[in-house]
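fyi for ur records
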Amino acid sequence: MVTERLARGLRRFNDMHPWDHNAHYHRWLLRQLPRRFGAALDVGCGTGDLARLLAGRARRVVGLDADPEILALARSLTPEGLAVAYRAGDAAAGLPEGTYDVITCVATLHHLPLAEALAGFRRHLAPGGTLVVVGLYRARGLTDHLLGAVAVPLNAAAGWLRNRGRPAPRPAAMTARTRPAETDFGDIVREARRVLPGARLRRRLFWRYTLVWRR
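which gave:
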Protein backbone atom coordinates (compact mmCIF):
# COMPACT_ATOMS: atom_id res chain seq x y z
CA MET A 1 0.00 0.00 0.00
CA VAL A 2 2.82 2.41 0.92
CA THR A 3 4.61 1.54 -2.34
CA GLU A 4 1.47 2.24 -4.39
CA ARG A 5 0.94 5.61 -2.67
CA LEU A 6 4.58 6.51 -3.29
CA ALA A 7 4.28 5.57 -6.97
CA ARG A 8 1.12 7.67 -7.37
CA GLY A 9 2.81 10.60 -5.67
CA LEU A 10 5.84 10.37 -7.94
CA ARG A 11 3.61 10.25 -11.03
CA ARG A 12 1.78 13.38 -9.90
CA PHE A 13 5.08 15.10 -9.20
CA ASN A 14 6.48 14.16 -12.61
CA ASP A 15 3.31 15.36 -14.33
CA MET A 16 3.77 18.75 -12.65
CA HIS A 17 7.50 18.94 -13.42
CA PRO A 18 7.95 17.31 -16.85
CA TRP A 19 11.10 17.38 -18.90
CA ASP A 20 12.21 15.88 -22.20
CA HIS A 21 14.07 12.62 -21.58
CA ASN A 22 15.08 12.40 -25.23
CA ALA A 23 16.60 15.89 -25.41
CA HIS A 24 18.65 14.90 -22.37
CA TYR A 25 20.71 12.69 -24.70
CA HIS A 26 21.21 15.22 -27.50
CA ARG A 27 24.59 16.43 -26.25
CA TRP A 28 25.79 12.85 -25.82
CA LEU A 29 24.55 12.07 -29.33
CA LEU A 30 26.45 14.97 -30.87
CA ARG A 31 29.65 13.75 -29.23
CA GLN A 32 29.38 10.53 -31.27
CA LEU A 33 29.49 12.49 -34.56
CA PRO A 34 32.24 14.22 -36.57
CA ARG A 35 32.68 17.96 -36.24
CA ARG A 36 31.49 18.42 -39.84
CA PHE A 37 29.65 16.10 -42.22
CA GLY A 38 27.55 16.22 -45.35
CA ALA A 39 23.99 14.94 -45.27
CA ALA A 40 22.09 13.89 -42.14
CA LEU A 41 18.74 12.17 -41.65
CA ASP A 42 16.83 12.41 -38.37
CA VAL A 43 14.18 9.66 -38.27
CA GLY A 44 11.19 10.59 -36.09
CA CYS A 45 12.31 14.21 -35.86
CA GLY A 46 9.30 15.49 -33.92
CA THR A 47 9.56 19.23 -33.29
CA GLY A 48 12.98 19.30 -34.95
CA ASP A 49 15.16 20.06 -31.93
CA LEU A 50 17.80 17.50 -32.89
CA ALA A 51 17.56 18.28 -36.62
CA ARG A 52 18.38 21.91 -35.90
CA LEU A 53 21.36 20.88 -33.77
CA LEU A 54 22.61 18.64 -36.57
CA ALA A 55 22.30 21.56 -39.01
CA GLY A 56 25.07 23.29 -37.09
CA ARG A 57 27.48 20.65 -38.40
CA ALA A 58 25.85 19.28 -41.56
CA ARG A 59 25.64 20.57 -45.10
CA ARG A 60 21.97 19.57 -45.14
CA VAL A 61 19.54 17.79 -42.82
CA VAL A 62 16.34 15.90 -43.56
CA GLY A 63 13.87 15.49 -40.71
CA LEU A 64 11.35 12.67 -41.20
CA ASP A 65 8.18 12.25 -39.15
CA ALA A 66 4.76 10.66 -39.68
CA ASP A 67 2.84 13.43 -37.87
CA PRO A 68 2.02 16.42 -40.13
CA GLU A 69 0.97 18.57 -37.16
CA ILE A 70 4.25 18.17 -35.33
CA LEU A 71 6.13 18.83 -38.58
CA ALA A 72 4.23 22.10 -38.97
CA LEU A 73 5.45 23.05 -35.49
CA ALA A 74 9.01 22.00 -36.42
CA ARG A 75 8.94 24.24 -39.49
CA SER A 76 7.67 27.18 -37.45
CA LEU A 77 10.53 26.73 -34.97
CA THR A 78 13.26 26.50 -37.63
CA PRO A 79 15.01 29.78 -38.51
CA GLU A 80 14.87 30.80 -42.14
CA GLY A 81 18.01 29.80 -44.00
CA LEU A 82 18.84 26.85 -41.79
CA ALA A 83 19.53 23.83 -44.02
CA VAL A 84 16.77 21.58 -42.64
CA ALA A 85 14.05 20.06 -44.82
CA TYR A 86 11.14 18.34 -43.09
CA ARG A 87 9.32 15.49 -44.80
CA ALA A 88 6.15 13.71 -43.79
CA GLY A 89 6.42 9.95 -44.08
CA ASP A 90 6.25 6.64 -42.26
CA ALA A 91 9.75 5.29 -41.73
CA ALA A 92 8.32 1.77 -41.78
CA ALA A 93 7.42 2.33 -45.45
CA GLY A 94 10.94 3.42 -46.33
CA LEU A 95 13.41 6.24 -45.79
CA PRO A 96 13.94 9.23 -48.10
CA GLU A 97 16.03 8.34 -51.16
CA GLY A 98 19.78 8.76 -51.07
CA THR A 99 22.58 8.06 -48.63
CA TYR A 100 23.45 9.98 -45.49
CA ASP A 101 26.68 10.53 -43.58
CA VAL A 102 24.73 10.58 -40.33
CA ILE A 103 21.43 8.92 -39.41
CA THR A 104 19.85 9.57 -36.02
CA CYS A 105 16.77 7.98 -34.50
CA VAL A 106 15.58 9.04 -31.04
CA ALA A 107 12.64 7.35 -29.28
CA THR A 108 11.25 6.09 -32.60
CA LEU A 109 12.74 2.67 -33.32
CA HIS A 110 10.29 0.89 -30.99
CA HIS A 111 7.46 2.09 -33.26
CA LEU A 112 9.04 0.27 -36.24
CA PRO A 113 9.72 -3.36 -37.20
CA LEU A 114 13.15 -3.72 -35.63
CA ALA A 115 15.05 -5.83 -38.17
CA GLU A 116 13.59 -4.05 -41.21
CA ALA A 117 14.28 -0.60 -39.74
CA LEU A 118 17.90 -1.45 -38.90
CA ALA A 119 18.41 -2.88 -42.39
CA GLY A 120 16.96 0.34 -43.85
CA PHE A 121 19.37 2.44 -41.81
CA ARG A 122 22.24 0.28 -43.07
CA ARG A 123 21.19 0.69 -46.70
CA HIS A 124 20.94 4.47 -46.45
CA LEU A 125 24.10 5.06 -44.43
CA ALA A 126 27.04 6.15 -46.57
CA PRO A 127 30.41 4.37 -46.24
CA GLY A 128 32.18 5.86 -43.23
CA GLY A 129 28.86 7.17 -41.90
CA THR A 130 27.53 6.99 -38.34
CA LEU A 131 24.18 5.71 -37.07
CA VAL A 132 23.12 6.77 -33.57
CA VAL A 133 19.94 5.48 -31.92
CA VAL A 134 18.47 6.44 -28.56
CA GLY A 135 15.72 3.91 -27.99
CA LEU A 136 13.23 2.50 -25.52
CA TYR A 137 13.14 -1.11 -24.38
CA ARG A 138 10.89 -3.30 -22.27
CA ALA A 139 12.26 -3.95 -18.79
CA ARG A 140 12.63 -7.66 -18.20
CA GLY A 141 15.45 -8.81 -15.92
CA LEU A 142 16.83 -7.70 -12.58
CA THR A 143 19.31 -5.27 -14.16
CA ASP A 144 16.53 -3.49 -16.05
CA HIS A 145 14.33 -3.15 -12.97
CA LEU A 146 17.20 -1.95 -10.76
CA LEU A 147 18.18 0.67 -13.33
CA GLY A 148 14.54 1.76 -13.54
CA ALA A 149 14.34 2.04 -9.75
CA VAL A 150 17.46 4.21 -9.68
CA ALA A 151 16.00 6.40 -12.42
CA VAL A 152 12.76 7.18 -10.54
CA PRO A 153 14.20 9.58 -7.90
CA LEU A 154 16.72 10.97 -10.41
CA ASN A 155 13.86 11.65 -12.82
CA ALA A 156 11.99 13.59 -10.13
CA ALA A 157 15.12 15.55 -9.18
CA ALA A 158 15.85 16.41 -12.81
CA GLY A 159 12.28 17.62 -13.34
CA TRP A 160 12.46 19.79 -10.21
CA LEU A 161 15.82 21.34 -11.14
CA ARG A 162 15.02 21.91 -14.81
CA ASN A 163 11.75 23.64 -13.92
CA ARG A 164 13.31 25.48 -10.97
CA GLY A 165 10.76 24.01 -8.64
CA ARG A 166 7.78 25.46 -10.48
CA PRO A 167 5.02 23.49 -12.24
CA ALA A 168 5.58 23.56 -15.99
CA PRO A 169 3.64 22.73 -19.15
CA ARG A 170 4.45 19.40 -20.70
CA PRO A 171 7.08 19.75 -23.49
CA ALA A 172 5.64 19.46 -27.01
CA ALA A 173 8.01 16.59 -27.80
CA MET A 174 6.40 14.60 -24.98
CA THR A 175 2.82 15.10 -26.16
CA ALA A 176 3.26 13.26 -29.47
CA ARG A 177 1.61 9.87 -29.93
CA THR A 178 3.64 7.14 -28.29
CA ARG A 179 3.43 3.55 -27.15
CA PRO A 180 5.43 1.40 -24.75
CA ALA A 181 8.34 -0.62 -26.02
CA GLU A 182 7.63 -4.31 -26.55
CA THR A 183 11.15 -5.65 -27.18
CA ASP A 184 13.57 -6.26 -24.31
CA PHE A 185 17.16 -5.10 -24.39
CA GLY A 186 18.64 -8.55 -24.93
CA ASP A 187 16.59 -9.13 -28.08
CA ILE A 188 17.47 -5.66 -29.37
CA VAL A 189 21.17 -6.38 -28.87
CA ARG A 190 20.99 -9.72 -30.67
CA GLU A 191 19.08 -8.30 -33.64
CA ALA A 192 21.23 -5.19 -33.90
CA ARG A 193 24.47 -7.16 -33.93
CA ARG A 194 23.07 -9.51 -36.55
CA VAL A 195 22.07 -6.68 -38.89
CA LEU A 196 24.82 -4.22 -37.90
CA PRO A 197 27.97 -6.19 -37.02
CA GLY A 198 30.08 -4.29 -34.52
CA ALA A 199 27.21 -2.12 -33.24
CA ARG A 200 27.75 -0.82 -29.69
CA LEU A 201 24.71 -0.89 -27.42
CA ARG A 202 24.32 0.17 -23.81
CA ARG A 203 21.51 0.53 -21.29
CA ARG A 204 21.06 4.10 -20.08
CA LEU A 205 19.22 5.95 -17.36
CA PHE A 206 15.66 7.17 -17.81
CA TRP A 207 14.45 4.00 -19.53
CA ARG A 208 16.61 4.39 -22.63
CA TYR A 209 19.37 2.52 -24.44
CA THR A 210 21.87 3.74 -27.01
CA LEU A 211 23.20 2.19 -30.20
CA VAL A 212 26.16 3.47 -32.21
CA TRP A 213 27.28 1.91 -35.48
CA ARG A 214 29.89 3.18 -37.91
CA ARG A 215 29.83 1.78 -41.41
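DSSP finds seven helices and seven strands in the chain. thats all i got for now
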